[in-house]
Amino acid sequence: MFDSVVAPMTVTDFFKEYFRNKPVVIKGADNKFSDVMNWKLLSDILNQSAIWSPHSLNLYSNTRAISADQFSYPSLTREGNEGRLINFDQVAEHVKNGASLVLNDIETLNPGLKSVAHAIESTFVGKVQANLYCSRSENQALPVHFDTHDVFAFQVEGSKQWRVYGTSVQKPINHHFFKSIDQSFHEANKGELSIDEELTSGDFIYIPRGFYHEAMCHSESTVHVSYSCVPIIGIDLLTAFFDVAVKDELFRDAIPNPDEKSGKKLEEHITRLVGRMRNNVLSPEFQEPFKEALNNYKFDRFSVKLPDDFV
Questions:
Q1: Does some domain include residue 138?
Q2: What is the rounded distance in angstroms from the CA atom of residue 163 to the CA atom of residue 144?
Q3: 236-273, pLDDT tens digit by residue?
Q4: Residue 167 · residue 191 · CB < 8 Å
Q5: Residue 307 lies in a domain
């Protein structure tokens, strides 16, 4: 399916020119993504009111989050735990007054959303998740920022002005080191504007992780769905190696104290650790299951077809 997303570009050209390299906008027909999301489909998933909470539904006004107590109320959750449920009358009032609605983790809520998630995971090998952004004219949900994942954004209703900047943070990840960067740093380091384009229904934009960007609604109302794709990285290899290391006496041994007498012993010990790790990581016993994990690095999304699956 991803070939239809980037058409008339080919998937081969997308990989060669843009993937993990630079942003690109691909224009499309007005109804290109109508089976993924539209006003009716959005109404349908919102009307599944019991599945929404302040964790999965957020509101923003001019880049600032609106407190959950302004659109939810204390109640027992479906699991019987204390929590909060959404007051949709209050949500509607906030949106009418210009707030942006953000729905998190929606990639399984209809067949179209699910098929795009599967297409991205199958094409790029990574864990995929989707959020939806619904805004009214001249409102901006998020300030200029970079993401710690690749962004595949589908404009499905209305229009939105997307600005992507020339500066990128190299290979950021979902870690406090990157998440704690002050907004003033983002503003000062976003670089020169490289893309400034209005996306209308049927258009698509790809933004590799680390590229600064922002989006502003210019039509009366607008909806876009943004998919994130997170790959396996080198740190994941270190995590996988930990399970090997705990079974090896050398990695469980005490590290020599770095005083004058044992300084050389410390260096020798670290050298042995590095050598042992290298031998283990390069061994077929480690690489084969790691390759299998890499090929299957995606979320499990089960489909049930009734009554056949219950017969």
A1: yes
A2: 9
A3: 999 999 999 999 999 999 988 877 665 678 889 999 99
A4: yes
A5: no
